[in-house]
Amino acid sequence: MSTLKILLLIPLLFCLTGCTLPGTSSRYQAYDDRSTGSQSSKYTKTFNEDFEDVWSAVLMSLGDLPLDKINKEKGLIKTGWVEGFSQRKARSIMTDRFLDDYWKERYRITFRISGNNLISSVKVSCQVQEKARGGSAAYRWERKKSTGEREEEALMRIEEILSDG
Predict the structure, then answer these.
(1) Residues 99-127: what's their mean pLDDT?
(2) By C-alpha distance, which of 120, 103, 102 is closest to 111?
(3) Among 150, 135, 120, 132, which Cα is nearest to 86's?
(4) Regarding predicted confidence, which is higher, 70 or 12?
(5) Which of 43, 80, 126, 154 could link 68 by a cystine bridge, Cβ 3.0 to 4.6 Å?
(6) In 3D, which of 129, 131, 128 has the Cα closest to residue 139?
(7) Is 90 in contact with 101 (CB distance < 8 Å)?
(8) Domains and CATH numbers, the chain
(9) Confidence check: pLDDT of 127 > 80
(10) Per-residue pLDDT reduced to its tens digit, 28-54
(11) CB–CB of 43/124 below 8 Å?
């Protein structure tokens, strides 16, 4: 074969194979967050279940949490903000004896599900923000590093649901 024929044959092979990587599902692909600059999560778990079962288990594990985004084709589920109080106290030790005054805290959880008919993977990340009680800081939410407890709890709930069902 001449070099020209080989060069013309290579693009044809790419088009015939569908331009997908081996081992990836053509219908459900993981949401790729590399473009957003975020780091890879250590809170990832792989299940010997198909995509549909894992997707349903993730939705069931959320319970009453508000949902912000759901995109099954990208494998993305994002909850809305859930507000509460931080463990951080707003005042000094002296005034703390008289007032239980905590900073506000809120969080939202993002699930990225990828898989096929044999195996599926769930990646969980949690965004946490905190707001002080008084002063100029009371008007803005400050980003805070997640402790990882919510991510681990979410993965455990998904695993329980899949093992029960």
Answers:
(1) 88
(2) 120
(3) 132
(4) 70
(5) 80
(6) 131
(7) yes
(8) 25-164 (3.30.310)
(9) yes
(10) 333 333 333 344 458 999 999 999 999
(11) yes
